[in-house]
TrEMBL record:
InterPro entries: AB_hydrolase (IPR050471), AB_hydrolase_1 (IPR000073), AB_hydrolase_fold (IPR029058). Signal peptide: none annotated. PANTHER family: AB HYDROLASE-1 DOMAIN-CONTAINING PROTEIN, HYDROLASE, ALPHA/BETA FOLD FAMILY PROTEIN. It comes from Actinokineospora iranica. It holds the Pfam family Abhydrolase_1. This is Pimeloyl-ACP methyl ester carboxylesterase. Residues 34-264 form the AB hydrolase-1 domain. One of its GO terms (molecular function) is catalytic activity.
Length: 280
C-alpha cells in the first residue's frame, strides 16, 4: 500500500545551482506538469498553508522552495523581482523541468509574472493570488503596512499574518487563528526563519515593483487564474481586477470578507478552483 506524503512530513531536499544550495520540498504524483509554488514576503517553506499544498498535491506534483538567501537556501537575497524570477527559473531547470505551472502568492505573484514574460515556453498555466501588476495601486505602501502590523502583533502577542492576511471581522479573526495553527502542524525539520537582511531586501524589491512603470501584460497569453480576498490591505484587491482586465486569458475570483490571505481562508474553495483550472 502506498502511503501518501503530506506537507507536514515531506522531507526537505536540496539542489546545488552554480554553487548555491536551494532548499525545497516536493509531494504528490510525479506525473504531468509540476506546480511550482512561489512564496510571499518573509515566507519560508513552513509558511505555505498545508491545506492548500496537500489539496493540490492530491492531484498534481507540487514543489515548494526557498529562493536565494531565504530560509535554508544559501546566497544573498536579491533586491529585485526580476533577479528573483531568474533564480526561480534556474531552480526549475536544475530540477530538470521543461514546463511548469506557477502558483505565485503576493511577492511570488510578481515573480510569476516576470517568469511568464521572460520565459513563456517554460510556463503552461499561472495562478496569481493576493498579488498585482508592476506599478499597481498601493504596492509601494507594503513596507509601511507590514512594519505597523508587525509592531501591533508584537504588542498583542500575535502572528503578524493575523492582521496582514485577514479581515478584522469575527469570521476573519477566526480564520486567522485557524491558519496560524495550521502553520504549526509540522513539528520536525522545520525551515530556518528568514534573516533580517533577506527581509529588507525583499521589501526593497516590492517597493521598486510598486513604483515601476506598468508592464505590457497583453504579451502573457497563458491561461491565468487570479484569486484574492475582496478586502486585501497589503496588495489592494483592485489590483486583482486590474490584472484580470489586462491579461488576455484570465479569470478572477474574489472571496467575500477576506483579505490578502483569501486563498488560505477559503482553502477548500480555492483548491477546488485551482485543480479545475489546472485540469481544464
Amino acid at each position: 500500500m502506498t502511503v501518501r506524503t503530506t506537507y507536514q512530513d515531506a522531507p526537505t531536499k536540496t539542489a546545488d545551482i552554480d554553487g548555491v544550495t536551494f532548499a525545497y520540498r516536493e509531494l504528490g504524483p510525479h506525473t504531468g506538469t509540476p506546480v511550482i509554488f512561489l512564496n510571499h514576503l518573509a515566507a519560508v517553506l513552513d509558511n505555505w498553508d498545508p491545506r492548500v499544498v496537500d489539496g493540490i498535491a492530491a492531484r498534481h506534483h507540487v514543489i515548494t522552495f526557498d529562493n536565494r538567501g531565504i530560509g535554508a537556501s544559501q546566497g544573498t537575497t536579491p533586491r529585485s523581482v526580476t533577479t528573483m524570477a531568474r533564480d526561480a527559473v534556474a531552480f526549475i531547470r536544475a530540477l530538470g523541468h521543461d514546463q511548469v505551472d506557477l502558483l505565485g502568492f503576493s511577492l511570488g505573484g510578481f515573480v510569476a509574472q516576470v517568469i511568464a514574460e521572460e520565459e513563456p515556453r517554460l510556463v503552461r498555466k499561472l495562478i496569481l493570488a493576493g498579488t498585482g501588476p508592476a506599478g499597481g495601486e498601493g504596492i509601494d505602501k507594503v513596507t509601511a503596512i507590514t512594519l505597523l502590523d508587525t509592531l501591533k502583533a508584537t504588542l498583542t502577542f500575535k502572528d503578524p499574518k493575523e492582521y496582514l492576511f485577514f479581515t478584522g471581522t469575527v469570521n476573519g479573526k477566526a480564520s486567522a487563528r485557524q491558519f496560524v495553527n495550521r502553520l504549526q502542524e509540522r513539528t520536525d525539520n522545520r525551515d530556518k526563519a528568514i534573516s533580517v537582511t533577506a527581509f529588507r531586501n525583499q521589501l526593497k524589491a516590492i517597493h521598486t515593483w510598486g513604483r515601476q512603470k506598468p508592464s505590457d501584460l497583453s504579451v502573457i497569453h497563458h491561461p491565468v487564474l487570479i484569486a484574492n480576498g475582496d478586502h486585501d490591505r497589503m496588495v489592494p484587491s483592485s489590483n486583482s481586477a486590474d490584472l484580470a482586465r489586462r491579461l488576455p486569458n484570465a479569470q478572477l475570483t474574489l472571496y467575500p470578507d477576506a483579505g490578502h490571505g483569501g486563498i488560505f481562508q477559503y482553502h477548500d474553495k480555492f483548491v477546488d478552483e485551482a485543480i479545475n483550472f489546472l485540469d481544464s
